[in-house]
């Protein structure tokens, strides 16, 4: 048995009877042949920063070791292909050292590059889909590696084609980056800041994140547990319970609300049930405070969703995925 307790940020006790690392297409072909001949499914994991592990995996668990960086130029645009196993913040530092810009707002996000397009990670006014050229995947049905262009990835807020199409295993991500530092400062956390270079901005973004999200080694967590609800303007106008909440205008007559603000105003920050709680730093961060399991996480998730639905008439949607 392979112990995967330290491979997930909630520190949930978890084991897999079979665990393999892969780097190449050939590795994946062999792994899927092995799985099919044994009548088993395959479960890909990354660094466990946005997934909730079961006590025992019934599937064969596999993990990428592709740590490659490949730089190229096309029509004056700098392109970078990054392996799925690269730690996200290592990519941020690599780009800064090579004077490649655009990712600064996403500094400090935990996890690996391979997970980034799956959730279409975003922070402080930038989503990774703004910078993706293509996503390289292994299609387990066709048994081939293919590159899916940005416009075919169905990117939306915390969504992509890779969530529904589990036959697509991300092996690398192709990025389009800028050669000039043009900071995006629209978000309220940084809009009054002035940065003379990318290093300064990255340092500040990490500082802001660390002030809100506890260190997983001290308080196991997955960062933001719920997505910020996006509803129509008409719905917000009809729902009087939302008038006291901040509302952020979105395209197409939509409005974004803060899930963290809702939980905070319900005095839930710092609460704890079954060793699962909400951080005292940020009401959107669910933490594991002792021996817990996926069923305990789900129990608390359901309570929080019910409270918000009852008080505000809004249904919260979970961000991390149960495996």
Give me the oligomer status. single chain
Number of strands: 22
Count of runs of 4 or more consecutive helical residues: 8
For the biggest β-sheet, the strand order reads 8-9-14-12-13
What count of structural domains? 3
Which class of the largest domain in CATH terms? Alpha Beta
User: Which CATH architecture of the largest domain?
Assistant: 2-Layer Sandwich
Low confidence ranges: none
Net shape:
globular
**How helical, in percent, are the residues?**
10-25%
Classify the beta-strand content into a percent band: 25-35%
Tell me, rounded to a whole number, the average pLDDT: 94
CATH topology of the largest domain: Uridine Diphospho-n-acetylenolpyruvylglucosamine Reductase, domain 3
What class would the helix/strand composition place it in? alpha+beta
Sketch the topology as an H/E string, one letter per element. EEEHEEEEEEHHEEEEHEHEEHEEHEEEHE
Largest sheet: 5 strands, antiparallel
Please report the distance between the alpha carbons of the first and last residues.
18 Å
